[in-house]
Amino acid sequence: MIFGSNIGTSVTNTIVSMTQVGDREAFRRAFAAATVHDMFNWLAVIVLTTVEVSTGMMEWMTEKLVEVMPLHANVSNPDILKPITVPVTELIVQLDKDVLMGWSFGYPEYANVTSILKKDCHADGSPCRFLLALLGEDGLGLSDVWLGVLLLAFSLLTLCACLIGLMKILNSLMATHMAEVIKKTINAEVPSCPWITGYLGMLVGAVITILLRSSSVFTSTLTPLCGSGLISLETAYPLTLGSNIGTTTTSIIASFAAEGKYLKPSIQTALVHLFFNVIAILIFYPIPFMRWPIGLARKLGDLTADYRWFATLYLILSFFVIPIIVFGLSVAGTAILYIVLGIVSSVIIIVTIINFLQKNMAKALPNFLRTWDFLPLWMHSLEPLDNLFQKIPICSKCTSVNNTTDPVVQQEHFESGKVDHHQHVSGEEARLKVNSSIYSPLKNVPSFCETVVQCHPD
Description:
Blueprint: H1 2-8, H2 11-17, H3 24-55, H4 57-67, H5 82-92, H6 97-105, H7 131-135, H8 144-174, H9 178-186, H10 197-212, H11 215-227, H12 233-246, H13 248-255, H14 263-284, H15 292-306, H16 309-332, H17 334-360, H18 383-390, H19 407-416, H20 429-432, H21 436-443, H22 448-455
Helix pairs in contact: 1-3, 2-3, 2-11, 3-11, 3-12, 3-14, 3-15, 4-14, 8-11, 10-12, 11-12, 13-14, 16-17
C-alpha cells in the first residue's frame, strides 16, 4: 500500500501538466517534468517490490531499527496548517474515530453501527450541525455511500480550482523579472563541485516539502516552471527526489503519536516509506547511466507533444487500468500473477534490446529486424489511433501535430514529416527558408508526408 501511494501521489502534477496542452512545446517540457516523477516511482515499485517479496529486506531492516529505538514518550504531530483547515473541514464533516477503530478490529458493539459520522458533538447532547450531518441519516436520510460520493466530487472540484489558481499565479509571476532570476539561480551549478548540485537540489526539495507538508504541491509547482523553460528536466529530477524524501516526514512524526501495541508497527510502517525512497534514489540517481526516469520522461514528453490525446490515455492507463489489472492478477493467484508479469517483462526487455541494437548496431541484426515495419502498423505506431481520434470532432484538435509558434520547431516538424503539407506558416517562410517554391509542389503531392514518415519512422 505504501509503494502504491508513491505512484498515486504523482498523479496531481501529471494533471497539472495538461493545463499547458495549448502550447505544444510548453506541454512537451511540462509533461516530461511531471512524468519524471511517475517514471521514478514506477521503476522503484517494480524493482523494490520484487526485492521485498523475495527477501523481505525492508521489513527486516526497519524491524531491527525499531527494536533499538527508545520508544517511550508520545510525540504530537505539528501541523502548521491545522489552525486554518480544521475549522473549515469541521463545518463539512466530522468522523467518529471510535467507529472506525471498532469496524477495523471487529468489536461486536459496533457491528450494527451504520454510519461513521460523529453524533455527539456537544456535551449537552444536542445534534451535530456540520453539513454532512444535516444530509445524513439523521437529516435528509442519505447513506454514507452517497455522502462519500458527494464529498469526493466536492474535493476533486476544490483540488482542480486550487490547481488552476496556482497555475494562474505562477503564470503571472513568469511575466515579471522573477522569471529570469529563477532561471539563473535554480539551474546554476556549484562552481567548484558541479556534481554536488543535484544533491543540494534534493535537500531543497525535501526542506520545501516538509514545510508545505505535501509533495504534490511542490512537484505541481515545478511542472509549469519546467513548461515555461525556466527549470530544466535535469534540475527538476533531483528536486522531485528530494520531495519524495520530505513527504515521508509527515508519516514518521505522526507514527510517534501512536500508543501501546500500535507504536512499534506504526513507526516501522513509516520507516518503510522512508527506506523505500532512499533505496530507490540510491539506485536511480548517483550513477548517471542509471537515471532512466529522465530518458523515459523525455520520450513521453515528445510523444504527447506529437499526439496530445496520449496524455489522457497515459493518465487512465497508469493510474487506473494497470493498477486494477495487477490487483486482479494478484487476487487470481501468485502463480498467475508471476506468469503474466514474467511474459510482459520478457517482451519489454526484448523490445528494449532490439531498439538499442537498431539505433546503435543495426548491421548486427537481420534485415527484417532493422526496423519494426514487418509488424502491423498499430503495433509500432500511434498513427492508427490518431487517425481514429481525428474522426471524433471533440478530439480533432488533440490529434497529430498542429501549428506551433516556435519557428525552429516548425522547421523540425516540417523536415521530419510531422507537419501536414498543407499547413501555412504565416510570416515565417523567410526565417524557416521554406518559400513558395517549396510549398507549391507539396500541394500537388498529397502523399508527401506519408512518404517522409515511411522513410523516417522515428
